[in-house]
Amino acid sequence: MIGYIIAFGFLIVVVYQRKKRKKRKKFQHKPIAPAWRTILQKRVYFYRQLNEQGKRQFENDVQEFLASIKITGVKTEITLVDKLLVASSAVIPLFGFPRCTYRNLEEVIIYPTSFNRWFQLDDPDERINGMVGSGILEGKVLFSKPALHAGFDINDDQDNVGLHEFIHIFDKENGFIDGVPPGFEKRSFAIPWLQFIHQKIAEIEEQDSDIHVYATNSQQEFFAVAGEYFFESPHLLKAKHPILYRSLMKAFSIDTAAVLAK
User: Fold this and answer.
1) How many separate domains does the chain show?
2) Across the chain, how many H-helices and E-strands are there?
3) Most buried residue, 53, 93, 129, 245, by CB count within 10 Å?
4) Domain of 24?
5) Distance (Å, rounded) from C-alpha 115 to C-alpha 240?
């Protein structure tokens, strides 16, 4: 049944991709500044592993993101590195959907440190490093600057808050952050997919998995954590969790193990 879901999901994702392409405005690409390329090459492992054609696509997507999404600092100055790490976090989950964008995002807000649910800083009892906004914060995503940077410090630890939150936003493209990626919404396909997720969660809880324990919090968090694994360590994920890898390959419309150098 899972194999059938994957095949069906691929077809729906293709339709999703085409629909999204129609909605993106034309953008006049320019060669990026050498300083930008240097930062991407140094800080973004995903970009560094791409071939030249892939790097040009990545650079174009970064330009489009920064031209269309506002980035605001709260009690912190926004640097070029901040902007490029935010844009890279956004571009990677959609890299398999050329020329696509996030319909539900208007602004990225960056704090100088972790925050709590009331957006107070340095609360020792609650440390939030990333969050997709809702209610009055609908259309916004929030990050702690140190956590955003830390996500790009280690290439293959499957722990990147930027990727994590943008995968949640990708998840929300079908209306809800529910762990069901765009293309798997129909009940006949969503239910087996969610059953598979909960099977994988049980493996983690039984300490029979290398997937980060944070994935056990909910099916939504499982999808985001698994997505981090998929984009940061695709060859390892493919070897250890082949069915999950194939599922994510269809969900994100990209074979990361093939695209990224081993």
Assistant:
1) 1
2) 12, 4
3) 93
4) 2-259
5) 35
Q: Tell me the two tokens of residue 7.
A: 């095949």
User: Token pair for residue 236?
Assistant: 């390892």
pLDDT in tens, 237-260: 999 999 999 999 999 999 999 998
Question: Are the C-beta atoms of 110 and 87 separated by less than 8 Å?
Answer: no
Q: What is the DSSP string of 182-199?
A: TT--SHHHHHHHHHHHHH
Compute the C-alpha angle 6/11/14, nearest 5°: 120
Q: Phi and psi dihedrals of 130, rounded to 5?
A: -165, 145
Distance of alpha carbon 240 from its chain centroid, rounded?
A: 21
CATH value at residue 241: 3.40.390.10
**Residues 6+ positions from 254 with CB-CB distance below 8 Å:** 95, 96
Structure tokens given for 218: 């909910």
pLDDT tens-digit readout, 89-130: 999 999 999 888 999 899 999 999 999 988 889 888 899 999
One-letter amino acid for residue 239 of the chain: A
